[in-house]
């Protein structure tokens, strides 16, 4: 398989779906949204964007299956699976906040080998494939060289569920506030990851994410020279539902800071 050629075609597809999402955002009617949960929102744009991606990806790699947020196609491939978040940052999209993206990763067995994250508002297409380096549009990207947490800007997200974890989450946030340049919560895990990859953030952590939130970002961070783990420092970050991504240098301090307050037993 020619991953470079597949990446080019994936980028074209993600750009076209991203343009569709951005266009639908103009004059978007909030009354059309549905609630998956109290604050877990979805719109027809998420669903139509996913359908367009699935149709395009079927052409690109007919033998691949799918893991998608909106469940357009639940067929699993024997070896290859596309892991799709058609619109990462739905809450932002619905509120007209221009911080959302299309995120698509390709898994070969249990390894992500290719990924694209396209932000139509900034016209930034982040992409990587295994062994090929990481890029934003035509330029090579790499993680920041900041040596320590005190020099770093840290991103996170708040889970839709598990409100019982709020207090310990706040404790972790308090610790990061006093040990870093600050904390940001953009509202798109895929953008958080690629911003680690290109050095805008030194680190990112979040609990309760799904594979589609992170698959593409994982290979982009890896190829940009970053480090990824669960809160314990190891484990499967794609399906593991918790993630720490960093430039590598700040990783031990991030794990230490989370570990001081994170009491939930690791599954
Ligand atoms: C969400 C975003 C958000 C994160 C949530 C995700 P969605 O994805 O990535 O930043 O905090 O946990 O579910 O629902 O907008 O695709
Ligand atoms: Ca969602
Ligand atoms: Ca998502
Ligand atoms: Ca989504």
TrEMBL record:
Q: Which reaction does it catalyse?
A: a myo-inositol phosphate + H2O = myo-inositol + phosphate
Q: Does the keyword GTP-binding apply?
A: no
InterPro entries, A to Z: IMPase, Inositol_monoP_metal-BS, Inositol_monophosphatase-like, Inositol_monophosphatase_CS, Inositol_monophosphatase_SuhB
Keyword annotations for this protein, in alphabetical order, are:
Hydrolase, Magnesium, Metal-binding
Q: Which positions does UniProt annotate for Mg(2+) binding?
A: 69, 85, 87-88, 213
- Pfam (any one): Inositol_P
Write out the GO biological process terms. inositol metabolic process; phosphatidylinositol phosphate biosynthetic process; signal transduction
The enzyme's E.C. designation: 3.1.3.25
Needed cofactors: Mg(2+)
Spell out the molecular function terms from Gene Ontology. inositol monophosphate 1-phosphatase activity; metal ion binding
- State the similarity comment: Belongs to the inositol monophosphatase superfamily.
Report the protein name in the record. Inositol-1-monophosphatase
């Amino acid at each position: 398989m020619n991953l470079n050629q597949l990446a080019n075609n994936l980028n074209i597809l993600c750009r076209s779906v991203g343009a569709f999402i951005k266009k639908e955002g103009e004059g978007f009617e909030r009354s059309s949204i549905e609630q998956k949960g109290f604050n877990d929102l979805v719109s027809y744009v998420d669903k139509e964007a996913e359908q367009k991606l699935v149709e395009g990806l079927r052409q690109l790699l007919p033998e691949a299956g799918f893991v998608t947020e909106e469940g357009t196609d639940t067929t699993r491939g024997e070896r290859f699976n596309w892991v799709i978040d058609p619109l990462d940052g739905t809450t932002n999209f619905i509120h007209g906040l221009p911080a959302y993206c299309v995120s698509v990763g390709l898994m070969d067995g249990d390894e992500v080998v290719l990924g694209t994250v396209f932000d139509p508002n900034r016209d930034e297409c982040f992409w990587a494939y295994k062994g090929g380096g990481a890029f934003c549009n035509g330029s090579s990207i790499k993680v920041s060289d900041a040596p320590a947490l005190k020099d770093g800007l840290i991103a996170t997200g708040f889970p839709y569920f598990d409100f019982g974890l709020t207090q310990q989450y706040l404790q972790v946030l308090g610790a990061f506030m006093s040990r870093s340049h600050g904390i940001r919560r953009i509202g798109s895990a895929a953008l958080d990851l690629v911003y680690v990859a290109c050095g805008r953030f030194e680190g990112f952590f979040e609990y309760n994410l799904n594979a589609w939130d992170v698959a593409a970002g994982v290979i982009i961070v890896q190829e940009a020279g970053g480090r990824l783990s669960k809160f314990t420092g190891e484990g499967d970050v794609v399906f593991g539902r918790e993630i720490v991504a960093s430039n590598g240098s700040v990783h031990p301090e991030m794990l230490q800071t989370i570990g001081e307050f994170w009491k939930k037993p690791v599954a």
